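step=encode ok
step=design start
structure_in=
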């Protein structure tokens, strides 16, 4: 018996070994995401809080920064859009993203439930009503639903799909 154990041990040392690392992730489909997004009713945002952001008090500085290609200031991050609107994320309140038209008037805002993926997001109108809601699975994938639960968009990398998996839009990141 001792010889058998010694022989198995010796063979295990000299025979080639192969190992494989298995990687993977969670695959989301529309229904799973829809259930997650609508599992809890959205919280109402007090209008007094929204009122503080109805007009961008730093509009001139933000416009000049964006025109100069500066997207990060000491207290906030900026993003510009092709229609001359822009967004702001304040470092001291990163759960919210605020979106303004060219004149600095609030057009919508987003409330995030987390700062790490997956992130449930709710987009509100300036009056506090819900425009849409969704789930950002990663930097490369997100789902957006109407308040009634209809899938509006499924972004996967640079392509946006409808519920029938048809490409309905593309985006291009400029780095």
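sequence_out=
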């Amino acid at each position: 018996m001792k010889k058998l154990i010694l022989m198995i041990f010796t063979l295990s040392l000299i025979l080639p070994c192969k190992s494989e690392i298995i990687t993977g992730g969670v695959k989301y489909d529309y229904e799973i995401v829809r259930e997650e997004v609508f599992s809890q009713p959205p919280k109402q945002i007090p209008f007094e809080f929204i009122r503080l952001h109805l007009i961008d008090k730093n509009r001139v500085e933000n416009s000049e920064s964006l025109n100069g290609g500066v997207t990060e200031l000491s207290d906030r991050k900026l993003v510009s859009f092709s229609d001359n609107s822009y967004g702001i994320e304040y470092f001291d309140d990163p759960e919210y993203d605020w979106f303004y038209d060219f004149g600095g008037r609030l057009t919508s805002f987003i409330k995030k439930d987390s700062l790490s993926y997956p992130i449930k997001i709710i987009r509100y109108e300036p009056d506090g009503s819900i425009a849409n809601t969704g789930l950002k699975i990663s930097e490369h994938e997100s789902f957006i639903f109407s308040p009634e639960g209809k899938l509006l968009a499924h972004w996967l990398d640079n392509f946006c799909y409808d519920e029938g998996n048809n490409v309905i839009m593309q985006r291009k990141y400029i780095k």
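step=design ok
step=annotate ok -> Confidence is low (pLDDT under 50) at residues 3-26.
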